[in-house]
Amino acid sequence: MAKQFPAFSEDHRSFIAAQHIYFVATAANEGRVNLSPKGGDSLRVTGDTQLVWRNITGSGNETAGHLLENARMTVMWCGFETRPLILRAYGRARAVHDGDADWAALDALFPAHDGARNIFVMDVDLVQSSCGYQVPYFDFKDERATLGTWTETKGREGIKAYWAEKNTKTIDGKPTGIEDYL
User: What backbone torsions phi and psi does residue 85 show, to the nearest 5 degrees?
Assistant: First the structure.
């Protein structure tokens, strides 16, 4: 049932735009594999074989750390509400941080957010669809306001202090690259 494509089609783009959640997986050469759910207005398909997603400050910074060692990334969308479809994009990615030359242009693709920590640019080499027939239905209720409220309370300097405390190392003790931007 799986089908493979060299690039995103218009149908893929429409499906992606309709999803409220996606999942990102990365792994360094050794250590734990990271799989993170992402939501909000944080992802753009910017070309037939490129996507960009913005990461808001969280408890860990595994993706950035993994990419310093191994650029492989998988992004997955799953149709929970109507269409039974699982869509995966495979490729290689890089992290962009506030202070990098392309930060401003990439960050402008998204609504302003003081908690923006990294932006990931992924060059996709394979898009794969599969049926999703066993995926249960879930109805979308709303976005959570918790992270936005937390970010506003901390302010940008408080966020940077949080990065220094919690986001400079992966759970396996590897650097994440954000330490150069504090």
Answer: -150, 140
Residue type, 25: A
pTM over 0.90: yes
Asked if 49 and 72 count as a contact pair (C-beta separation under 8 A), the reply is: no
> In 3D, which of 28, 39, 91 has the Cα closest to residue 63?
28
Q: What is the pLDDT of residues 109-130, one digit of tens each?
A: 999 999 999 999 999 999 999 9
Residue 1 has pLDDT above 80, yes or no: no
- Tens of pLDDT along 70-108? 999 999 999 999 899 999 999 999 999 999 999 999 999
Q: 23, 47 in Cβ contact below 8 A?
A: no
Tokens of 25: 């997986």
Tokens representing 34? 């990271």
100 within 8 A of 158, measured Cβ to Cβ: no
* Residue 143 phi, psi dihedral angles, 5° rounding: -75, 150
Are the C-beta atoms of 27 and 66 separated by less than 8 Å? yes
Percent of the chain scoring above 90 in pLDDT: 97
CA–CA distance, 52 with 176 (Å, rounded to integer): 19
